[in-house]
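About this split. The held-out portion is used to measure sequence recovery: a designer receives only the structure tokens and must propose an amino acid at every position. Recovery is the fraction of positions where the proposal matches the reference. Here is one held-out target exactly as it appears in the evaluation file.
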């Protein structure tokens, strides 16, 4: 079973996931997103009694792209094994879903990372650790607003500035904010900063 501290961390982790999915354009129930820790415990009795995290796995539907779905997996063990990847791939394949997030407790072993890399040849699988999701990084006071441009908006920007995308400043795929939004190589962020002295400033970053 989960102790109170682990339950608290899983509750915080789930709250961040709901916020992250909403910010990525997926449909999220306000009731679920605003769940208190007591409501969380009641909603997942097996988590409280047996410690099984599988019940936390969730399927999200994109708000504007009807064929786009994303599955969030919570392995029961501290870290998933190669055989778990096969199970996740089977789940995604049966539902024609190609996007997934795996949320683990502990750092993965080399063989698990190898299995994940192999699966990424056919599926867009992201990896997060629970410790990374205890707080929504975009809510930090020093993190400016990031907005992913559509391909049309990106091309309009490049045409307006008369530059190639390689001339834009860069943001790495490994950047914590980029990972939160799920930005892919070649996409562009509009970054809006606001200060009392300088007012509003806008910058653009290419994901690489």
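Reference sequence for scoring:
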């Amino acid at each position: 079973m989960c102790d109170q501290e682990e339950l608290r961390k899983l509750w915080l982790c789930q709250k961040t996931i709901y916020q992250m999915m909403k910010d990525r354009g997926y449909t999220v129930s306000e009731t679920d997103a605003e769940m208190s820790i007591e409501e969380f415990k009641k909603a997942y009795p097996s988590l409280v009694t047996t410690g099984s995290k599988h019940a936390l796995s969730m399927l999200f539907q994109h708000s504007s792209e009807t064929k786009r779905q994303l599955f969030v997996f919570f392995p029961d063990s501290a870290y998933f094994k190669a055989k778990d990847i096969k199970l996740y791939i089977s789940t995604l394949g049966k539902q024609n879903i190609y996007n997934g997030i795996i949320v683990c407790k502990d750092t993965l072993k080399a063989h698990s990372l190898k299995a994940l890399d192999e699966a990424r040849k056919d599926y867009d699988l992201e990896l997060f650790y629970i410790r990374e999701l205890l707080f929504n990084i975009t809510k930090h006071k020093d993190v400016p607003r990031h907005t992913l441009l559509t391909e049309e908006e990106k091309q309009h920007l490049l045409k307006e500035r008369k530059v190639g995308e390689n001339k834009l400043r860069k943001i790495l795929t490994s950047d914590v904010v980029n990972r939160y939004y799920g930005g892919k190589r070649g996409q562009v962020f509009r970054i809006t900063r606001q200060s009392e002295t300088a007012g509003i400033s806008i910058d653009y970053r290419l994901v690489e």
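Annotator remark: The chain has a mean pLDDT of 92.
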